[in-house]
Specification:
17-stranded mixed beta sheet; alpha+beta; 2 domains; about 230 residues; Jelly Rolls; globular
Length: about 230
C-alpha cells in the first residue's frame, strides 16, 4: 500500500510537469496579429490542424493560412502595427513573422495566394524594410515603408502604391520576379504582371474608379466610405 502511495505521488508529479511544459509551449506561441474586423465566413488553419473561424478579437499566428469565402472579408493588425485587409474569396499564408522591438531578427514574410488585399506597413518596415516581403504567385513585393493595394490570382497580379499613412512620408515598393523588377515611388501608380512568365510592367497611373472598386471589395461590416484621396485603414 505504501508503494502504491509513492507511485501515485510520482504519477501526479509527472502529470504536473507535463502540464507545466504544455503551458510553457502555449505561452511560447506568440500571437502574430489580431482580427480587428471580420465579415462573413473567414477561417484560419495551420497544417493539419482543425480549421477555426475568425471573428473580431481572434488571434492569428505565424503559419496560419487565412481564407475568406464569397461573403467574407477580414482586417488584421500585427503586433508591429502593420495592417492587412483581405476581400472575398481571398487566401493568404502568414508565413514568417517575428517582432521584437529593437531586434534585428524581426521579420515579416507573407504569401498572398489570391484575392484583393490592402497592406499598411508597420514598425518592422520602418526600421528594417528589407525584412518585409509580400509574396504572390508571380512576383515579390519589397516594402520600403508604405501602403499597398492589389489583386492577385494564381497566374497574375496587379499591385498599386497608395498614399502613405503619414502625409509627406517617403514611400515606395519594388515588385520583382525572375524576369525583371520595377520600383514604384509615386502613389496611385501600379504595375501589372499578366502571367507567370512576364516581368512587372512599367508603372502606370491607376484610374480612381479602379481604386474605388478594389477598396470596396475589402470593406467589412462597417462599410466605410471610400475616400478619394489618401485612403487608409481605419
Amino acid at each position: 500500500m505504501k508503494e502504491r502511495g509513492v507511485l501515485g505521488r510520482l504519477w501526479i508529479g509527472v502529470a504536473l510537469l507535463v502540464a507545466a511544459a504544455m503551458t510553457g509551449i502555449a505561452h511560447a506561441e506568440r500571437t502574430a496579429a489580431e482580427v480587428t474586423e471580420a465579415s462573413g465566413e473567414v477561417h484560419a488553419q495551420r497544417g493539419a490542424e482543425a480549421r477555426r473561424a475568425l471573428e473580431q478579437g481572434a488571434a492569428v499566428y505565424a503559419g496560419d493560412r487565412i481564407t475568406t469565402a464569397a461573403d467574407g472579408s477580414v482586417e488584421l493588425r500585427f503586433s508591429d502595427n502593420a495592417r492587412f485587409a483581405l476581400g472575398s474569396n481571398s487566401e493568404m499564408n502568414v508565413g514568417q513573422y517575428v517582432y521584437k522591438p529593437g531586434d534585428d531578427a524581426s521579420v515579416m514574410q507573407t504569401d498572398i495566394l489570391k484575392g484583393v488585399f490592402r497592406f499598411v506597413s508597420g514598425l518592422i518596415a520602418r526600421h528594417k524594410p528589407q525584412a518585409v516581403k509580400l509574396n504572390t504567385p508571380v512576383a515579390t513585393i519589397g516594402i520600403r515603408g508604405t501602403h499597398v493595394i492589389g489583386e492577385v490570382t494564381p497566374t497574375s497580379a496587379s499591385i498599386a502604391l497608395m498614399e502613405p499613412g503619414e502625409a509627406g512620408k517617403p514611400t515606395a515598393i519594388e515588385v520583382s520576379n525572375r524576369y525583371g523588377s520595377v520600383v514604384i515611388d509615386k502613389p496611385r501608380y501600379e504595375t501589372v504582371i499578366p502571367d507567370a512568365h512576364s516581368p512587372p510592367s512599367p508603372p502606370r497611373l491607376v484610374q480612381t474608379q479602379r481604386i474605388d472598386t478594389l477598396l470596396r471589395q475589402i470593406q467589412t461590416t462597417r462599410r466605410l466610405i471610400v475616400p478619394r484621396t489618401a485612403p487608409r485603414l481605419p
